Amino acid sequence: MHSKQKQLQNRGYVEKGVESEFTTIVFDKKIELLESKIATERTLGARLLIENKTKTTVDYLIKALTLEKKLYSKIEICNTLSELNEIAIKPLIKYLAKIGTNQHKTVPEKPFLKDSYPLPRDIASRTLVTIGKKAMPELLKELNSDNKSALSELIDTIGHINYYSNTENIYEPLKSSYNRNKTEDLIKWKIIRAFSGVNESYAFLKTLQDEMKNKRLENEINRSLRLIKLRKSQLPTLYKINAGFWAFSKVFLCLHCPLKLI
User: Fold this and answer.
1) In the predicted model, is pLDDT for residue 237 greater than 90?
2) CB distance 245 to 164 below 8 Å
3) Which of 58, 67, 70, 245 could make a disulfide contact with 39, Cβ separation 3.0–4.6 Å?
4) How many other C-beta atoms lie within 10 A of the C-beta of residue 250?
5) Which is nearest to 220 in space by CA: 240, 237, 201, 239?
6) pLDDT averaged over the chain?
């Protein structure tokens, strides 16, 4: 076996199509594979569970996700959760900020200068993003959360989904969350970023711009205002670009993303 292929298998890589040889195996056997000590078997188990669209399946997959260390096995678990769609939304929301340590803890000093919306760092958030707009009603319900870590990742999720799918009626919930968290710079920064996809937030952002004394938050305000102006001036073109990026990112987020998924 070539060393490169061996390395891929050690990280849980399984070629597409292999699962066709196991389509008749029962649910309990799939769970055995998911909980195997062998990474490729865990990947295969996660892939096969896509046919078992139940809350029990979601529970097993999320438990596996909290334990998984191998890249391709982790990606496959995320893929299956996203394909399970609505039944995975609430459980994934409960695990925001609970898996891995790659989330923002403070507002970064270096501003994000691109016109795209940055990928969420949290793996539960990324999986919710691949589910997309269908997750938004449940996400918005959680904006009153007192769990600041989970709220931070929740806002990332809302912001990313909205930026590429233009969800209605999110301005007031986000603004209310901002006003409830005036002492939380990280939360405010995340909401200001989410406002980059909300045209109605322009006047509020201008008010914040006039009174803001935090340079890092000011940078994000300026970026959001710039993106809103860009959207208004190039609306048809921008939505066409965003739609294409969204279609691409649903694959990119969990299939080929080179960033850490922990």
Assistant:
1) no
2) yes
3) 70
4) 16
5) 201
6) 91
